[in-house]
Amino acid sequence: MNETLIPPGAGEPPLSPIAMLDYLFPGFTLLANFLQSHLGINLNLYIPVLLSISFIAAAWRYLSSYLSDLMESYLMSVVDIRTDDEIYNMLMGWVAQQTFSQGARRFVANTNLNSRMYWWMWGSNDEDDEDDGTEIDETGAVVSKKKKKALAYTPTFGSHWFIYKRRLLIFKRQQPATQSPFYTTSEREEISISCFGRNPWVLKELLNEARQIYLKRDEAKTLIYRGALKGTGLEPTWQRCMARTSRPFSTVILNEDVKQKLIEDVTDYLNPATRRWYANRGIPYRRGYLLWGPPGTGKSSLSLALAGFFKMRIYIVSLSSMTATEENLASLFAELPRRCVVLLEDIDTAGLTHTRDPSQSDSSSPPADGDTTAAVVADPKTPGGKPVPPPGRLSLSGLLNILDGVASQEGRVLIMTTNHLEKLDKALIRPGRVDMQVKFDKADQGMTAAIFRAIYAPLEGDDLPSVTPTANSPALAALEKKLIPLSDGEQERKEGKERQKKEILDRVDKLAGEFASKVPPMEFSPAEIQGFLLKNKRNPEKAVEGVEEWLVVARKEQKEREVEQAKKKEEEAKKAAKKAAKKAKKKAAAKKKRKSKKDDTTESDGESGDSDASEAEESDGGDSDASESEEEKAKKKEKKTRKSGKKDKEKKAKPAALTTAPVVEVRVDTPPPSGSEADKGAPVPELKLDEKPVVVVAAPAKTMTIDTKKANEEPVEKAQVSGDSGYGATPAEVAAPVAQVEAA
Ligand SMILES: Nc1ncnc2c1ncn2[C@@H]1O[C@H](COP(=O)(O)OP(=O)(O)OP(=O)(O)O)[C@@H](O)[C@H]1O
Q1: Cα separation of 32 and 42, whole Å?
Q2: Which PANTHER family match (predicted)?
């Protein structure tokens, strides 16, 4: 065994175990040669020792992991933290504050401790995180960067021991054994905390403490969650997307009576006694509000303010988003907490504009503005001719089931918003689903003045220009502060500020009146007016001066928008007509073919009945269908429906049942305010002499209308005769009249 090592390249190398080791550990020969030639150490002699050490080390590793698993299973309590759950954010926020975290030698530095899931989805939008302390002067230059986004440090992968409530705990951060490249960073880690002992109380206390701290941080904020799809499986979930400082109710410009009414209604609903009241009577404990009106009139703002006022989280889903399929919505609603505000935006969206009653459906109507999915929903039909949304898309009955099906959570405040009340199905807004309607309108003179005041009136926290003559120079102001005895100086400054505030308020008030008199009422939405004022947010005089110019530009832009929309509508109508014509042509050709086949086989049979006759009639006109206008087609359809209705009636010789499709709907409802969208768009029911309409006269339901322009008048009660097609006057309608409130 006394072999000599020869340097590589010097003759024939001997076959030694070291050479083999070299294969396993590259560079080992070099080290062995070096030790042999310079120190005279033959590593061959140490190989058994090295092997023994490696074996012991491997055995120790295996044994320690086995023992630790054993201990964890039988002697320890462990809590695993899901990285896609909000508890991750809570725990990491807590961990970052602990000394074991701050003292770690290897750590992860974050500017945001929330699960990376949320960043990926929404970005970091918490207001705290947004504030990086950058201040900008009037010219737009960065003047100071005093506050910096704080860094948070959390321990890196591995086990970290710490003491909590005199107990030894272990914080473990590990990489999972299996990793998918699609996972976001936070999903690629596993977090757990363990403690010795079989009772996990200390872990629960820790998590509770972490949760309390987390919630306290958001106490004065409105937490906004949005329905989204997460992970690779695109599972629907509520993602926290923002924590906004709660919007004071006073900042939403709305009739005070309406605000008061809304607050009282929600307060009463949230009262635990009300919950018991509902439970005792077996009435589902739910309350729904419908906010409707043109865009930019404050519907979302009011919803947010309401959530902030009652310190509830707000969960938002837009029904026009791709997330809003029936399945997704159902799982989102099942996940809702008990006490929260749910905001369903754009409920006039596709699929929901169609009534559940097939006789009322109008699948050929062109989609509404911006209603991108409408066409998709309008087209598909079942063999029976009923319009059905494409698989997965939300249907009206699907939404109704979600809203008040047995699986639907009770105790929530549901707010639905729409720009087109007239498009909504009556079933969607019947009492029980919608208990109060609030109408929003464009700004009248009072509202315009209020918006002006809201923008320019000095508020707590605003920087007022200093009132002392010396204050133009900051150096002099500082000197003055030094020289004047604090008490006197402070008093003077305070009084001066008050005086100045009053002066500004008076001036803003005067300018607000002037501004409002220049803006024509009911022409612009509060959002449009606010947009203009924000352009001159530090200069009210300039805003008043520039208002006429803005009116010209705004009107021009509005006209251009209208022209564009009209063009779009026209194009869509043309496309729809073309499509319908094509379909009709195809259908007619197919029918002709079928008929000629039939004629060949049963020539003597002749025409067999009404339905055939009508078919033939339709088929005859089939060719001309292509050139037929939509109106003619609709008339034909109506005629056919009437005919089949008549036939049914004759056959059954029974009084019309409520469950069958009614022939004509007669509804004397609360008239929408003249000039409103509803006024223009609502179809007037036609009643013809030869028809015997099914008129269902319900017990008069009371509709409360508060016209806020006549603020001091008593609420008007209007009788409502409801022949609601397909539904009649439901017990819900009779029992709980909808309060209709005009907000503007
Ligand atoms: N009545 C109002 N009071 C105060 N601010 C308003 C009011 N209406 C609109 N605004 C302002 O206009 C902007 C848009 O308002 P908001 O989103 O609430 O309108 P909306 O009616 O929900 O619009 P949309 O129908 O398009 O969703 C917000 O910045 C809001 O502050």
Answers
A1: 7
A2: BCS1 AAA-TYPE ATPASE
